[in-house]
Amino acid sequence: MHRFHVAHQRLVPIAVTLLAFCLLALAASNAHAQDSADTLELEVPLWIAELDADEAQTRRAAELKLIEAGPDASDYLPAILDDLSIEARERLNRVRAEWAKRKAESHVETQLIRLQNAKTLGEALEAISTVSEVEFDLEAAGEGGDLTQTIRAPRSPLNFWHAVDHVLDQAKLDINFYGGDRTTLMLIPRDENRPSRVESAAYVGIYRLEATVVTARRVLRSPELSSMNLNLTIEWQPNRTPIGLTLPISAVNGKLDSGETLVPQTSGDTIDIATNTEMAQSEFFLPMQLPNRPSETIERLAGTLTAMIPGRREKFALDLNEPAASQTEDQMTVSIEAVRDADPLREIRVGVELDSAGRSLESHRQWIFENEAYVILEDGTRMDHLGYEVFRQTNSGVGIGYLFDFGPAGSPPPGSKLIYESPTSVAQDAVDFILNDIPTP
Predict the structure, then answer these.
(1) CA-to-CA distance for 257 and 273, rounded, in angstroms?
(2) Is the dihedral of CA 371, 372, 374, 379 positive or negative?
(3) Which domain CATH number covers 50?
(4) What is the pTM assigned to this prediction?
(5) 200 and 210 Cβ atoms separated by less than 8 Å
(6) Does residue 411 share a domain with residue 273?
(7) Residues 213, 80 share a domain
(8) What is the C-alpha separation between 111 and 107, in angstroms, rounded?
(9) pLDDT digits over 237-285, tens only?
(10) Is residue 243 in a domain?
(11) In a domain, 155, yes or no
């Protein structure tokens, strides 16, 4: 006991020293961040002015400095830019496009969640929510929803779905995807025979994949009709619904425990997977050729998922009494084009333009029609639209007319604002996945 007491006394000053060191490091980090902000506040206006310098070399250098400063520099742009020349505006537009691209690419990066300090279900779910901004509804979770129950935390950081599954396996919970929305997952008690979520799944990027059904049939009179078919579910982080999610057939391959290669049927170039912002799960069907020899498991099934990933959602607030009100956030510009009579209603015509839209506005534009649009009156009252009509579609944007009933006044009252909520950027994403040890019939 005496020996332990001495050792403890020795450790106290060491712990105090380490704590002081950590506090100093934190203070230094905060001071550095503040210095960086102060530097940008001083230098960004100077670089903007240099976009109009007499020397071409100075103009090019200023453009590069703005690009290298990154998206954070956008907070320090001068409020008034009317004095810039046409060339300077073009350079600034290139800078803004690069900032938007970097911001979108950073949103595609997988977020890692650290649960090492979580000791209970409540602490673990809170840690996941803090990083992902996804909430959990435990109203239907029953006994498994006890937030005080002990959780064994993993030692290493995990991506969103791996972290969620790690916690749900211990709490004996599952997910009802029909009960959540774009920011919430509803947790429910797990069926008794439900296998471990962690052991059943493959995790890659924002996705979770799981094989749910495997069927095989041999057609004796028409062998070419024989097949082995797989049903798979794919889940994505609820607030990051992919756009135009596809699985190229040419990238799908597998191997059985018999050593035989598993190959897909020639049923097309891609498998299109439906996505919806209100439900973070979809199911798709993977047709494979029937193996020549019997097997017990598919040892390996691999493929590539391609999609456009939307960036962070932003809120546009446009004054309905201001002619041609417009607002730009990242790659998106939303404008009021007209407020027209549609007796007995009023139609608010809204233009939505997206820089570098790519495939996101080709055949996969439904996401933009699912965005929320409503009117907030001066007293804070919310008015939802009564329907909409698309009056324009181009490669870079859409025009949407929203119908509202403003009562006897007919027009939006003074102080009314149209609120439009939408992701403001999209980025291309392609990830490879591998599923292992899938039992066969």
Answers:
(1) 28
(2) negative
(3) 1.25.10
(4) 0.71
(5) yes
(6) no
(7) no
(8) 9
(9) 998 899 889 999 988 999 999 999 999 987 778 999 999 888 999 999 9
(10) yes
(11) yes
